[in-house]
Amino acid sequence: MIRELKAQLLTNGLSVPDTSNLPTIFVITPTYARPNQLAELNRLRNVLLHIPQVWWLLVEDREEKSELVKNFLTHSGVPHTHLHQPTPPEWKVKDKSPRWTKPRGVLQRNAALDWLRKNADPHLPAVVYFADDDNSYSIELFQEVFAEWHLIGTRASSRSLFFITVVSRCHRCLTMRWTSQVSVWPVGLVGGVMVERPLCLCRQGVEPDQARPMVTGWLVGWKPERPFPTDMAGFAVNLRLLLDNPDASFSLESEIGFMETDFLSRIVTKEELEPKAECCTKNTHSRYIHHLAVVLVWHMNAVNPNLKDEVRLRQLGRQTDIGIDV
Ligand code: UGA
Ligand code: MN
């Protein structure tokens, strides 16, 4: 299908960028069965479908893979690997307890890291991102869409070549795909504040390649004493770093709220962090990228759907979802 579309574009004198040599983005997503699981997974899938060179590692928190997720992935159109790793019952959040009483998604993320260490090509330029299934992700978090439109929609001309050069330079600056070690960015609606964010030092008026933006501190409300006070959604790691540090993994024993910090402390220092999204909007190329929102990912928690009539119908043997994936 995509090959056909590319051929049609070429016939009309339009070229499609070759994305095969871009670094791969491995997206690791823990997921568990609940009424809105498929709704959440579809929202993430719809974003990933826009992203070239992406590989989705979807890890079910279950004894075995479910047919529901298997069917979903098979028809998703996103290159993927389907894994499963159950959380032992004693580490599961009890029904009536608040969700933060137990860490979530820990063993599932570790299972995906194990898979990468066994299966990923160590020579492949790649970055790893932990994307929970319930957040809101913008396409620009992964990919500079403006560049894509431009490359796809414009015939080559000296003006567009200039434009491509500028935007591709910003690529390196803006998106997680160009992470040398660990990149960080703001996350909206998390930790009791509108946005938790790294504070950055950016030198104005210099080429992004020459002036590396630095993280000088963080602006957060909750537990600001954490060495890396970021949510899981706020960072990406170069695959190489994870292969070089085979013990880097998430721990069930981390103090509440310290899971990200404990993981990052093993692989990176504050000085090495590469800020994205925020700093780069202030550099000399800002007139090309000012349309980008500063916040590119939002931490969300779904309200449980009202299923009171489903419960009643179930008692009458008339549940609504027999024979249909919901
Ligand atoms: C916050 C962070 O955003 C998470 O990345 C972090 O794992 C979590 O805190 C924590 O400290 O454990 P929050 O929104 O409260 O997350 O957590 P959930 O969205 O409920 O769970 C995070 C991920 O784990 C989701 O992808 C979810 O599908 C998965 N999960 C949750 C499981 O695989 N099994 C579960 O029993 C619960
Ligand atoms: Mn969540």
Secondary structure layout:
Elements lengths: L1 H10 L12 E8 L5 H12 L5 E7 L6 H8 L5 E5 L21 H14 L6 E5 L5 E2 L7 H9 L4 H17 L7 E3 L2 E4 L2 E9 L12 E6 L15 E4 H6 L14 H7 L8 E2 L10 H4 L7 E2 L9 H8 L11
Helix pairs in contact: 5-6
Summarize the structure.
This protein has helices at 2-11, 37-48, 67-74, 106-119, 145-153, 158-174, 239-244, 259-265, 286-289, 308-315, and strands at 24-31, 54-60, 80-84, 126-130, 136-137, 182-184, 187-190, 193-201, 214-219, 235-238, 274-275, 297-298.
List keywords for this structure.
glycoprotein; membrane; seven-stranded mixed beta sheet; globular; 29% helix; three-stranded antiparallel beta sheet; alpha/beta; Spore Coat Polysaccharide Biosynthesis Protein SpsA, Chain A; binds manganese (II) ion
Structure write-up:
This protein has ten helices and twelve strands. The chain has a single domain, classed as Spore Coat Polysaccharide Biosynthesis Protein SpsA, Chain A (Alpha-Beta Complex). A seven-stranded mixed sheet has the order 3-2-1-4-10-6-11, with helices on both faces. It has a three-stranded antiparallel sheet with strand order 7-8-9, with no helix packed on it. It starts with a helix and ends in an 11-residue tail after the last helix. Helix 2 links the parallel strand 1 and strand 2. Helix 5 runs antiparallel to helix 6. It is of the alpha/beta class and 326 residues long. The structure holds uridine-5'-diphosphate-glucuronic acid (UGA) and manganese (II) ion (MN). GO terms for molecular function: galactosylgalactosylxylosylprotein 3-beta-glucuronosyltransferase activity; metal ion binding.
